[in-house]
From TrEMBL:
Membrane topology classification: Multi-pass membrane protein
Signal sequence segment: none
Keywords: Cell membrane, Membrane, Transmembrane, Transmembrane helix, Transport
Main localization of the protein described in the UniProt heading: membrane
Species annotation: Desulfobulbus oligotrophicus
Taxonomic lineage: Bacteria, Pseudomonadati, Thermodesulfobacteriota, Desulfobulbia, Desulfobulbales
The name this protein goes by in its record: ABC transporter permease
Chain ranges passing through the membrane: 27-45, 179-202, 228-250, 257-281, 287-309, 321-340, 346-366
């Protein structure tokens, strides 16, 4: 690049840095918003069901029934409440005071001692289907664990044709935070890359400063680079802050290479910046650009990327639509690097797809950026 071009590019970059420093909204999107989102999803959002309000109805409180009911007191998943009758427990369930009922009938203790398979009544509030399934699974787990303990105390072994041995890979603590934090990084990078650049450039069109640049000797590629480079480093700074919080505040494991994480994040940020440039090139109003950026980048990154909702459980048409969402590929890379490691068979195809998307968006922006006011 010629010295004159270098000076012009350096001047443009300095202008953008000064504009960022003078604009509190840019600083907020790059650094304050990631902190807020990480705090919300790290502490306020959890897919783990704990302290489930369960009603215990023991019609005949003998030693066997009280022993089994005590298992719920020792479980971190339940917050049990005792009721004297099933009618009172059903009333509490209708009032949403409890999430389920465990009903030990009067023949529970005697039936267990006589080995006649005493029934346990389980009534679950099915309004929230996911919580209902979790309650059902947790109650069954407590029942089988209690049976094993009783067999051990009696010096016997449970007879079963199949012995289940569980092994949980990659997230042995089964913490939803370890799954959510890598995904929210993709949402943060999308906001910084797409929303910030779309707003800033659309604002320049509204204020007329873009026209002032177009009538100078600065070429279109220099204008694009002068705006791309500052916001790229701004986005990488937001990523660095997010990684520090993920490691030292939420203790999310990092099993992959840091350099590979930074490289894939830089690649995705480049794609997000291209999407922001594309939106601001087509829509030159801040309000419209912000609305389009939220609908076309943020919401898909949040809903259709596999960050929270499993893509395979979506309708076939929506599954096909997710292949157009850049955040889908970045979320896969992040979750792999954080929880599994450097699995190149996963990283390479997703990174290659991101590269193709980046070339597409930046190519379209370069083609549409002309040295005229049309």
């Amino acid at each position: 690049m010629k010295p004159g071009r270098n000076m012009r590019l350096a001047g443009l970059m300095r202008k953008e840095y000064l504009q960022v420093l003078r604009d509190p909204s840019s600083i907020a999107i790059a650094f304050v918003l990631p902190v807020v989102l990480l705090l919300i999803f790290g502490y306020g959002v959890s897919l783990d069901a704990t302290n489930i309000r369960i009603a215990l109805v023991i019609e005949q409180p003998d030693n066997i029934a009280r022993n089994f009911a005590g298992s719920f007191d020792q479980s971190p998943y339940f917050a049990p409440r005792s009721f004297s009758s099933i009618q009172e427990a059903e009333t509490a369930l209708r009032r949403a005071e409890v999430d389920g009922i465990v009903w030990l009938r009067s023949d529970f203790g005697s039936g267990y001692l006589q080995n006649t398979s005493p029934p346990i009544g389980l009534i679950v509030n099915g309004v929230d289907a996911n919580t209902a399934r979790l309650v059902e699974g947790y109650v069954q787990g407590i029942w089988f664990t209690w049976l094993e303990q009783q067999m051990e105390l009696a010096g016997k072994k449970m007879t079963s044709p199949v012995q289940l041995e569980q092994r949980i890979w990659y997230n042995p603590a089964v913490r939803s935070t370890d799954f959510l934090i890598p995904g929210i990084l993709a949402v943060i990078m999308t906001l910084i890359g797409a929303l910030l650049t779309a707003l800033v450039i659309a604002r320049e069109w509204e204020r007329g400063t873009m026209e002032a640049l177009l009538v100078t000797r600065i070429s279109a590629p220099e204008i694009l680079l002068g705006k791309l480079i500052p916001y790229f480093f701004l986005g990488m700074g937001g990523l660095g802050l997010s990684l520090v919080m993920a490691q030292f505040l939420f203790h999310v494991p990092m099993r992959g290479s840091l350099w590979l994480l930074l490289a894939s994040s830089a690649l995705f940020l480049w794609v997000a910046l291209g999407m922001g440039f594309f939106i601001s090139t087509v829509f030159r109003s801040q309000f419209v650009a912000a609305l389009v950026a939220m609908v076309s980048t943020f919401l898909p990154a949040f809903i259709l990327s596999g960050f929270i909702f499993d893509i395979r459980s979506m309708p076939v048409i929506i599954q096909g639509l997710t292949y157009l969402i850049a955040a889908r590929y970045y979320v896969t890379i992040l979750q792999t690097l954080f929880l599994v490691g450097d699995v190149w068979s996963v990283v390479w195809p997703n990174a290659a797809t991101l590269a193709l998307m980046g070339f597409f968006f930046h190519g379209v922006v370069y083609h549409k950026t002309k040295k005229n006011l049309q």
